[in-house]
Amino acid sequence: MTTTSAPVLSLKGVGKRFGAVQALADVDFDVRPGEVVALVGDNGAGKSTLVKIMSGVYQPDEGEIVFDGSPVSIPGPKAAQQLGIATVFQDLALADNLDVVANLYLGQELTSAGTLDEVEMEKNSWALLRQLSAKIPSVRIPIASLSGGQRQTVAIARSLVGNPKVVMLDEPTAALGVAQTAEVLNLVERLRENGLGVVLITHNMADVQAVADRIYVLRLGRNGAEFGIDDVTTDKLVAAITGASDNAVSQRASRTAPKGAEA
Amino acid sequence: MSFADKTDERLVEDSSPKAMLEGFVRRMKSGDLGMVPVIVGLLIIWVVFYSQNERFLSSRNLVELLLSSSAIGMISVGVIMVLLLGEIDLSVGSVSGMSGAIMAVLVVYHDWSVLPAIGVALLAGLAIGVVYGLLYTRFGVPSFVITLAGLLAFLGLQLVVLGDNGTVNLPGDSWLIDFANFKFLSPLASYVLAVLAGLAYFGGRVLTIRKRRAANLSAPSVLSVAIRAALMVAGLAYVAYYLNLDRGIGYMPLLWILVIVFMDQVIRKTRFGRHVFAVGGNEEASRRSGIRVDRVYVAVFALCTMFAAFGGVLAAARLQSVAQSSGGGDTNLMAIAAAVIGGVSLFGGRGSMYAALFGMLVLQSITSGLNLIGVDAEVRYMVTGGVLLLAVTIDSLSRRARRSSGRG
Ligand SMILES: Nc1ncnc2c1ncn2[C@@H]1O[C@H](COP(=O)(O)OP(=O)(O)O)[C@@H](O)[C@H]1O
Ligand SMILES: [Mg+2]
Fold first, then answer.
1. Does A106 touch chain B (CB under 8 A)?
2. Which of A71, B19, B71, B408 is deepest in the core (most CB within 10 A)?
3. Residue B25 included in any domain
4. Predicted confidence (pLDDT) per residue in B57-86, tens digit
5. Residue A75, class by beta-carbon neighbours within 10 Å (0-12 exposed, 13-18 middle, 19+ buried)?
């Protein structure tokens, strides 16, 4: 763990309101280079909203965003990209009618003499996919003909095209089978090895245990708790997520290991 | 030699003729039809009319066919752009009529010279599209409704522009009329053009092959490209020869085809074109990847109405006048039908610029063929309607086939 280095991206006291719903209130959040931070929380806890604030889709109503040591505002997805914050959204990420290369470079196409530099983009695509040990048979087939895991791989690879410093993944394994989930978690490991700050949103505690260094729990739009991976147990997490130590999971846990339920 | 893009053992593809044929059949079955239906359709139509009346495929008739395709075909170029976004413009007929009227009135009543008058007509077209685009992106009004309103509004404006007389005749000695009716490439120029087209194709492909080789990517052999280029020159030269038996290739059809070639390059080879396909395929994904989606919409609506205005100017030039009925009747539907018959999907994100060429040739062949065998307009309307319905059905079926074979 590299918790000693300075955060590459941090949020301080961030709040966001949708009409009558206070989706986020006074949230603090840090990511450091070479670290995987898991962001967990119940449905509606505000995870996606937090990610969308960091990726410029939503503007915070209050609070501060600090990137690489200086305060920034992120007025749109393009601005986030230019700063070096890449996002793999939960849905709607790829254009099915375009091929893999076109999707990888969507919005940041390479050109030479005013026209698309297809050869350079294809070459880089292969290099990128190999760097991730990704299994894509051809980069000139439409996205629609790829499997769910391959599509997620393309979405993750795409986030790396602009050489970002932070990559955020919103439930990247939600729709995947066992083997494909393992493939995606491998990719997450690679991102960390390459020194990126990774924000991983997930519902799956096994994913968290497998790759996360630190865990943030959001509860009802507020900072719930923060754990290092070494001092967390499933029942502590469940308690922090649900806000109650009195539930089926923690009860069973306390029957088998009585000390666990006190967080 | 192993190329960076041919390392996956699951890649079922090689370059023998048999494998290429199999790949073609596989693509057809999975709903990736491209231009195939329209070209097959065109051949069938030509064979049928030829068997009814040999004059149908005479040089004279084909020269005429091209001349009368160009104006509406130019409108189709813009319609294709809008369809690629999954939107529609129902007002292209009215916009073309009104723009033609603006041009004619400036020239005839206000003694403008032709070029600036055309410039104003095109700008009017452009401005209309900008307004459409802003209405669409700012207020989210469906393009169907915006342009339906435009259809009526600009029909009205056309009547206002034309004034009490109703019809404005362009001066008979204007170069514009000459250009649209009586100017043809000399035979020599037409063959030179065929060779130049082949050379441009060959040169472009060889450059790409070099670049791909240098990047360690697989590339076709120079020989196969040379063969294709030679076939292309031979084909174009034969078309030129056959048309030269009569008057030859008209300046106006030539302009139309050059515009199609140019716009094809724009949509396939530029960032703007890539963004058009992306927005047509998945608007939200495009927005999130930083594409300025609103600008793409405004630009495309503006291009569409500008090409509509351009088509209106060409129609005025060809008919030597603008009347209250210009751009009315079936202009609208012909322009849209040509694009759809040419295989541009109504669902957005799929299609080729050459749809304007082949789709228009299909429609104009039907018109011309039915005229030759002495059938009246009512039958032509019904046949054209049937062909359009067929094209839309093919579009829907191939979309379904793509879905079930996982090609989106
Ligand atoms: N665009 C929006 N408009 C109104 N309310 C929203 C919007 N986006 C999110 N919310 C609300 O904010 C809260 C947090 O949502 P979200 O961030 O999607 O949660 P999570 O991703 O943790 O499940 C929910 O109550 C949700 O209804
Ligand atoms: Mg969510």
1. yes
2. B71
3. no
4. 999 999 999 999 999 999 999 999 999 999
5. exposed
